[in-house]
Design brief:
With 540 residues, the chain is α+β, with helices and mostly antiparallel strands. Helix 10 runs antiparallel to helix 11, helix 16 runs antiparallel to helix 17 and helix 26 packs antiparallel against helix 27.
Length: 540
């Protein structure tokens, strides 16, 4: 304090006194704020705030230069002194008085709003020079009795405050409500119904929502008995805390728990409706940079997608495109690639829409494939996604699969998957279906099967099926693939060289009780024989 000369004493504030001082060495006028700390807790809090203020640097915030402590012997306490710049000694009171004298209004009420009114006892000075709404707002803010004074939650509902916050670049989501005084946690001891009621009552308190969401994850049996009420409470929490990744993540976990344990149609209607799907996709939109949340969100959509109505909603609300965006953003993250691809597969298989760009979607999947070829789980998910994409392209937009480069990449990936993971039944099934879709859409695919960079694909296809001789699904998918290949006569020699006749005869005998497979195999066998006879006739 010895380094400063006191020039003037300003009106005391709630927590201390402010002095106008002059630095003895530099001669600069500065402001010195003195705060008395009556106990250790208050002193520690004041020190922490002072340290934060010293690190602040903003053109609209007064710069703090230093702080020091002294002992106030009159009240036996530590006094913290903070020295700051003194750019202007005007108060709101003097500015208002000046405006009154000149009979002028403020040009920018938002600047005037920046909360220092020193004459709280008499606000009549504000009757002239500001708008009626601004005057009302200040009256609410500066009620002397703190119990009657407007809280921040009441103030942010005022239009003038909203506009001021927007001008400052401040989001209302950054404000966090707290529980009323004396209430510290949900009433867990009162049972499930009381906790759920508490959750709905204090929807805007993030800490309360997180506590109850954790509770719901532990109370699975009770949650499943009140599916509609729990879904309503969880979606409200998601909507009110769009900026909280923790709320969104825990909410998705609760929804997964409910979906996995729900079986009746009425309960499913709550879980597969637009409110749930839109909340989950909004979380995806808001947190594209949060891989764990994206993974959890798409896992939730995968669990919902067996419902045809839900798939239509996922497509309608842009879920497929969001999955593709996530794949592009995190192609190396296995924990995200699998649920995204499964979401593409199940949604497109059930729904009736199509991605905005089929070629871009297929390209994205093929780009990711080589990164995970050693992982059977990822490869299966990628092949499943290609199966749905190629099927959707063939049925809904036939021209979408006619881009040679895109279809070549897709066929290359599928054959590579068969070479690397031929023992994985799921990969073989999805690959066979996707290859059949590609061949039916482009004649160029037949050439690629015959002359791929790693040799003919016909032996690869036949050997993959032979690793799963007793699987009816693999056999049926092989027959469908062979049917598409036989649309092109130049493949017959390749198929005969692989003993396809003996293979088909064995299939007819082995699956004689499965009429669909038998009829399909016989149809293909008949065509192979007729094409072979015709070729022999021509050669003779």
């Amino acid at each position: 304090m010895e380094n400063y000369v006191i020039i003037d004493v300003m009106c005391p504030g709630c927590f201390g006194v402010t002095l106008l001082v002059k630095d003895r060495e530099s001669g600069l006028e500065q402001t010195l704020k003195k705060v008395d700390c009556l106990d250790v807790i208050a002193a520690d809090k004041a020190f922490q705030e002072a340290l934060c203020l010293l690190n602040l640097s903003h053109p609209n915030i007064v710069s703090y230069k230093e702080f020091f402590t002294s002992w106030n012997k009159h009240i036996s306490s530590v006094t913290l002194s903070m020295v700051m710049d003194c750019p202007c000694m005007k108060t709101l009171r003097t500015v208002i008085a000046s405006q009154r004298e000149q009979k002028q209004k403020f040009e920018n009420e938002e600047e005037a709003f920046l909360s220092l009114v020193q004459n709280r006892e008499n606000l009549s000075l504000l009757d002239f020079g500001i708008s009626r709404d601004f005057h009302q707002l200040l009256n609410m803010m500066f009620i002397y009795n703190p119990k009657r004074r407007a809280s921040v939650w009441l103030l942010v509902k005022e239009e003038l405050v909203k506009q001021s916050l927007i001008l400052c670049g401040f989001s209302l989501h950054m404000l966090k409500k707290t529980l009323p005084e004396g209430l510290t946690e949900p009433p867990f001891h009162e049972g499930f119904d009381s906790v759920l009621e508490f959750m709905m009552t204090y929807t805007h308190v993030e800490a309360a929502q997180l506590s109850v969401l954790s509770y719901l994850l532990e109370e699975e049996e009770n949650a499943l008995c009140r599916v509609s009420d729990v879904v309503k409470a969880v979606t409200f929490a998601m909507l009110c805390h769009m900026g909280s990744v923790c709320v969104q993540l825990k909410s998705c976990y609760v929804l997964q728990l409910l979906i996995a344990g729900t079986y009746t149609g009425k309960e499913n209607s709550w879980l597969c409706g637009e409110s749930v799907i839109s909340c989950v996709l909004e979380a995806v939109r808001n947190f594209l940079e949060h891989c764990d949340l994206l993974s959890c969100a798409f896992q939730t959509l995968v669990l919902i997608s067996p419902s045809g109505e839900a798939c239509d909603l996922i497509l309608k609300l842009g879920g497929v495109q969001h999955a593709l965006n996530a794949l592009k953003a995190y192609p190396e993250e296995e924990v995200l690639v699998i649920p995204c691809c499964k979401c593409l597969w199940s949604t497109l298989a059930q729904g009736c829409g199509t991605p905005e760009s089929m070629a871009s979607a297929v390209e994205t999947v093929c780009m990711i494939g080589p990164m995970h070829m050693q992982s059977a789980d990822v490869t299966e998910a990628l092949c499943a996604a290609l199966q749905s994409l190629t099927m959707h392209g063939k049925c809904c937009n036939p021209t979408a699969l006619c881009e040679d480069k895109m279809t070549e990449n897709a066929m290359d990936f599928l054959m590579h998957a068969l070479r690397e993971q031929p023992h994985h039944c799921g990969i073989v099934n999805h690959a066979f279906v996707a290859m059949a879709n590609l061949i039916s859409s482009s004649e160029m695919m037949v050439v690629q099967v015959l002359r791929s960079s790693e040799g003919s694909g016909v032996p690869l296809i036949m050997s993959a099926r032979r690793l799963h001789p007793n699987d009816p699904k693999v056999t049926a998918n092989l027959c469908n693939l062979l049917k598409q290949l036989l649309q092109h006569d130049n493949l017959v020699p390749e198929l005969l060289a692989e003993n396809v006749q003996e293979e088909l005869e064995q299939i007819v005998e082995q699956f004689e009780s499965t009429m669909e497979i038998v009829l399909l195999a016989q149809e293909i066998l008949s065509k192979v024989m007729s094409l072979n006879d015709a070729e022999q006739t021509i050669s003779t």
